[in-house]
Amino acid sequence: MGAQSAGPLVVGVDSSTQSTKALVVDAVTGAVLARGQAPHTVSGGAGKESDPGQWWQALGEALDQCGDAARQASAVSVGGQQHGLVTLDAAGAPVRPAMLWNDVRPAPQSERLIAERGGAAAWADRVGSVPASAFTVAKWAWLRENEPAAAAATAAVRLPHDYLTERLTGEAVTDRGDASGTGWWASSTESYDAEILAHIGLDAGLLPRVALPGEAAGTVHAGHLPLPKGALVAAGTGDNMAAALGLGLRPGLPVLSLGTSGTVYAVSTHRPADPSGTVAGFADARGDWLPLACTLNCTLAVDRVAALLGRDREAVEEGGGVVMLPFLDGERTPNLPGASGLVHGLRHDTTAGQLLQAAYDGAAFTLLTALDRVLDADAAPDAPLLLIGGGARGRAWRDTVRRLSGRPVVVPEAQELVALGAAAQAAGLLLEEDPAAVARRWGTARGAEYEARPRDEAAWERLTATLADGEPLLRP
Predict the structure, then answer these.
(1) Cα separation of 323 and 465, whole Å?
(2) SS3 of 42, please?
(3) Which residue has the higher pLDDT, 256 or 261?
(4) Residue 460: enclosing H or E segment and its boundaries?
(5) Predicted confidence (pLDDT) per residue in 259-305, tens digit
(6) E strands present in 65-176
(7) Could you tell me which of 160, 87, 135, 232 has the C-alpha nearest to residue 418?
(8) How far apart (Å, rounded) are the C-alpha atoms in residues 267 and 241?
(9) Mean pLDDT to the nearest integer, 386-400
């Protein structure tokens, strides 16, 4: 252990698309005493799939790297990638690889479900979200249609974090935060929706129970992991809800997360219901709400453009009128699952650096267009943006967000916020405290501050016009 511990130890886990991270954290001070990380693989091609067994193996490897610190933990919690469809047979083994959040094959099922159940406004009013192709409800509909034998062999349906929690505890438990991304948990009643489940042919008995905020899922019963048997296991939550906990978010403070995907969200005390589908009306892990918009193309797409241009990702240049919408993987915000990248306004004098800057602008623009929908009407228009994720460390990303948002930016020093948020949830359970208050005590949101810049209205107008005029090309 790299530092002295003042209080009991907790483990926070981040099981993401690409890897599993584990942190051992002092529950009182927030000091990170040990960390570990192990990779997963994701299939290429049209489908984005992973074997859930890899996540469990990676969890074991990450905990092993934490050494003795993990063996002294009193509580553990798992934050996991949202929306993934994990199908298990009667013996608890995966029927097939999990379909991940960024698998857009269920786009036709998504559109059909929206139409069959009263349209987008009806879904938003009832469920809190309009179920895009990312949502688990569309993935289950796709599976029944395309792999009926796999659907018929399914004896349990889980989300990625549920799967790991169940293997830790032997208990089938989820939480309201991650459940709110399924499309079959209704925010209006805070329960599974019997009519939607009947419509998609999914028996409620196949689903985990939804734990209340602050309730334990169980205790560690898996003997071969380097965790103490009998340690408390929190209910866990989705990765975005865990990151919000990790920052100790209060209502009105927006977060922009720049990772493989981009997200913008804020905690709200009002239940969200956006009929446009831009904002997902998620629940948070505490009892409030987490309106959130997600883009599929963020740092990975911009890095791909930099590679195509043969430039370092920071080698941007100002000027020029070129516009790029870097929708390399289809897009979710705006909802254009069949889209590809679009470049408009290319001239003889356009430089490679300007084209790379245009990729940054296009990726940031789609996130920032959702910001006003995510924030409550009474939120301060000059509240700083908390910039997190891998991109937040990049000067070009920070400068782009400041130029297009007109807001000040804070980059928290704390990294691994999903794992930290899971640790805060575990600490909250152990200490019988609000996990967001635990994170605020840890000081996780402190960081470098960057003052506001005037918004680049000309660039904003070019992007708005290109998106509107280019829609027939983006919707093949």
Answers:
(1) 10
(2) coil
(3) 256
(4) helix 457-469
(5) 888 999 999 999 999 999 889 999 999 999 999 998 989 999 999 99
(6) 73-80, 86-88, 98-99, 156-158, 173-175
(7) 160
(8) 9
(9) 96
Going by the DSSP 8-state scheme, the letter that residue 45 receives in this structure is S
Which residues are within 8 A (CB) of 213 and not within 5 positions of it... i.e. 6 or more apart? Answer: 175, 176, 285, 286, 287
Cβ–Cβ < 8 Å for 182, 283: no
Q: Could you report how far apart the first and last alpha carbons of the chain are, in Å? A: 55
B/e letters for 421-437, b = 16+ CB within 10 Å, e = fewer, are bbbbbbbbbbbeebbbe
pLDDT of residue 1: 41
* DSSP character at residue 68: H
Q: Which residues contact 472 (CB under 8 A, 6 or more apart)?
A: none
Average of pLDDT values for 441-459? 96
Structure tokens that stand for 331 in this block: 């897009």
* Active-site residue identified among 14, 26, 239, 361: 239
CA 442/CA 427 separation, integer angstroms: 11
The C-alpha R_g of the chain, in whole angstroms, comes to 21
Global pTM value: 0.90
Confidence of residue 392 (pLDDT cuts 50, 70, 90): very high
Show the tokens assigned to 309.
Answer: 């241009």
Q: Which of 213, 218, 177 is nearest to 437 (CA)?
A: 213
CA angle centred on 304, ends 276 and 347, rounded to 5°: 85
- Integer angstrom CA distances of residue 116 from 120, 122, 193: 10, 10, 15
DSSP 8-state secondary structure symbol assigned to residue 384: P
Dist CA 166 CA 222 (whole Å): 10
Q: Which residue has the tokens 């786009």?
A: 107
Q: What is the helix, strand, coil percentage profile of the chain, to 5?
A: 35, 20, 40
Q: Which stretches of 40-170 are assigned E, i.e. beta strand?
A: 49-50, 73-80, 86-88, 98-99, 156-158
The kind and range of the H/E element at 2 are none
Rounded distance, CA 351 to CA 336, Å?
Answer: 28
| Closest to 315 (Cα-Cα) out of 365, 272, 269, 351 | 351
User: Residue 89 catalytic?
Assistant: no
